[in-house]
């Protein structure tokens, strides 16, 4: 994710420095950040480095059934999660980690304590309430209270709308739909990423974000992710009314 | 405050390192942190260094009428505030700063953006609601809704109880009460710090925090603040029921 280099560079930590893309890294000592599903393109990623002295941190923020088939039980050494993407409560600023090594866990806890004087008690209470409501929905609760089923239906519908709008315009293309066996839903399910990685196919447009901005559609340019500026990242998680306006504007572009 | 060296040391920033007590600092380039009223002892502090290349950051977290007379309009270059101590909403993790230099303000904003991806929108809405309720109380609202008047009455009462309990025990002493002309309340008002800096006067007690812990009173030892362990810091801001138990336990100690 684009925020990683900014943070290490800004602090100029004596402990760590940003070393760029893991695919081109040479060395034994590193921390590899694996964002899976990936931001911005929703692809499932595996660590590309392996060394006894290196560590991989798996950011599983988007590994939830509304976004991607849950094809396997996650079992990495260090796994990060957040209520931001699972339930939409980004404002609580709450995440959690599953960590196998006790000493690594202790240092992560210490960092949280120093960086934010621990986690807000208000936020802990809110997050606990939210997560129990989600859990209760799957524990004999009414099916309309089942968050991930709701979320998946919503994401399937939005991706259908987006693919139709892109096809109607004739000027945009999207990653091909992939699917897999979801062990949570117990059925084959499509990948419905939280972001669309949209490409402008018009020959005369080199800056897709600028072109869309001219048509009142705000996106993040591919070059903010080290990619071709013909690509943009589109959030698929805005409110219904904003999403509907985005779709109608996109469909009308030739 | 004791958290400053921990944070700089933990990050091992290439930009800053903790240089210890400003009173013994030699050099021209520095950031001096001035906590006023001071934590733990509630004393009003001024910057002790002065250099064109140095900067002072005034932490005014406790500069509110319930804790201290507002004797002068604060007019420092960089001033930090927080709803944590002004209204008690620490869980929002919201503070604000008044900063004269535009470039310094820009860098502070950038740091907040990188460190916490901006400030939680939930928290901003809650803090705005809380601060308008406080402000409305002083803008023609009912006097029972005047937060700082309520807060000062509460703190005056708690300090009275604490001084009586310390006197009853005969084993503890407290800083002498100071007062000043408060321009907010428009009267002379006592200093009622959010923490009590309590000294155990018993000859046989060298570790006041340990002694109190043995009597089921939890405090922070003076040595956590670089001071004599005969001192402890006591929070004056716990709930009424917990505060009442603390007072009765303290009064019973000889």
TrEMBL record, chains A, B:
- Keywords annotated in UniProt: Pyridoxal phosphate
Name the source's superkingdom: Eukaryota
InterPro entries documented for this protein: Alliinase_C, Ethylene_sulfur-biosynth, PyrdxlP-dep_Trfase, PyrdxlP-dep_Trfase_major, PyrdxlP-dep_Trfase_small
Q: Which GO terms describe its molecular function?
A: carbon-sulfur lyase activity; transaminase activity
One Pfam family cited in the UniProt record for this chain: Alliinase_C
Q: Which residues form a coiled coil?
A: none
Cofactor dependence:
pyridoxal 5'-phosphate
Q: Does the keyword field hold Metal-binding? A: no
Name the GO terms of the biological process aspect. Answer: amino acid metabolic process
Do you know which Gene3D superfamilies this protein is assigned to?
Aspartate Aminotransferase, domain 1, Type I PLP-dependent aspartate aminotransferase-like (Major domain)
Q: Which residue ranges does the record assign to the Alliinase C-terminal domain?
A: 4-253
* Family of this protein: Belongs to the alliinase family.
Q: What is this protein called?
A: Alliinase C-terminal domain-containing protein
According to its UniProt entry, this protein's organism is Triticum turgidum subsp. durum (Durum wheat)
């Amino acid at each position: 994710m684009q925020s990683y280099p900014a943070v290490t560079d800004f602090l100029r930590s004596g402990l760590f420095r940003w070393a760029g893309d893991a695919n081109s890294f040479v060395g034994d000592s590193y921390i590899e950040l694996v964002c899976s599903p990936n931001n911005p393109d929703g692809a499932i990623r595996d660590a590309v480095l392996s060394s006894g002295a290196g560590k991989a941190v798996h950011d599983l923020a988007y590994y939830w059934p509304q976004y991607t088939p849950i094809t396997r039980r996650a079992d990495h050494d260090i796994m990060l999660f957040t209520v931001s993407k699972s339930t939409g409560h980004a404002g609580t600023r709450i995440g959690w980690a599953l960590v196998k090594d006790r000493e690594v866990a202790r240092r992560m806890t210490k960092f949280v304590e120093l960086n934010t004087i621990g986690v807000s008690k208000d936020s802990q209470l809110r997050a606990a309430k939210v997560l129990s409501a989600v859990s209760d929905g799957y524990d004999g609760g009414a099916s309309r209270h089942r968050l991930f089923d709701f979320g998946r239906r919503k994401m399937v519908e939005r991706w259908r709308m987006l693919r139709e709008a892109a096809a109607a315009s004739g000027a945009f293309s999207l990653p091909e739909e992939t699917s897999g066996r979801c062990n949570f839903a117990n059925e084959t399910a499509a990948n419905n990423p939280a972001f669309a990685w949209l490409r402008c196919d018009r020959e005369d447009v080199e800056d897709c974000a600028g072109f869309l901005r001219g048509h009142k559609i705000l996106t993040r340019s591919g070059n903010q992710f080290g990619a071709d500026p013909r690509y943009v990242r589109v959030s698929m998680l805005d409110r219904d009314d904003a999403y509907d306006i985005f779709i109608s504007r996109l469909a009308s572009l030739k």
